[in-house]
Design brief:
three-stranded antiparallel β-sheet, 14% strand, 12 helices, alpha+beta, Chitinase A, domain 3, 2 domains, 11 strands
Amino acid sequence: MKMKRIVAVLLCLVMVFSFSACNSGGDVLATVDGQKIYQKDVEGLSALLALMSSMNYEELDEGTKAQINNSMLIFFIDVQAMKSHFEKEKKTVVTEEDEKSIDEQADTMLNSLKEQGSSVDVEKLHITKELLVSYLTAEKYDTAYRAEIAEKNPVTDKEIKAYYEKNKAQYTREVEERQVSHILIGDETHSDADRAAAEEIRAKVLAGEDFATLATENSKDTGSAANGGDVGAVKQDGSMVKPFEDAVFALAEEGAISELVESDYGFHIIKLVAILPPGEKPLDDVKDEIKSTLEQEKVTEEYPKLRKEVKIEYAKSIEVDKETNLPIAKQVETGSADK
């Protein structure tokens, strides 16, 4: 939905992606302890995360693609390092039960993407079930690693307060914002069948069925669907498509449900969760957000240590920063498999 935040959104999503390459063949960009990372997997994951942010990977300019792909490659390396880290500690992160659940989730995700028809060519974008399984498995390793760091070096209330005081301007609303959730049905074709389906779901919402559950089960906006339809705080600044934004600010009270809203993406059912007035946000309101930020900083500080625990080798054509031993963005898009 927020088309103007391409790189920022994708780099936030990057933290939960695939722990290892998917053996899909093609050019090898790097190996981590012998595990190959393929260019098709890097590009496939970039495309998947773009879709989760309601963006079309193929429409991004080459420079943006290269930057995103480079970030995917770096995090492929980092999460593979997490996997090696837990193996050395002889810790089981993903159980057989987890594997079965992940396999089912991957099938559901792939079918959902294929149902979008002409708007998403999953084969052309290199989005496979194997890639989705790897993506979902990464969440387990990422969660386990964060928990380990949090236990060793927990974020304190003192750190949270200090961060809040230092960054107070960041936690001040200059204009009214609105916290909203939505359910997206259909696509740009706006078919009668999709309209009828959207009307049926809206009727269920009005009848008292749980909005978040309906969003998770039905919304075509895969990014927000995973969070019960939560879109976040919306400003009246043009960052959302106009029909959506207009409908959000036309809702009169918290809890209100919109009529069907037709946009370039399909039909939306919007719920106004909260009206957020201008002014300074109290520390209690942003404490969890700050804690997550500080936890992420502590995890990020551990990545260089993780990389030193594994052997990383790159394709000859990949330009590498000698200080960090990480790839430089401009070379990733055209990386060769030659060693």
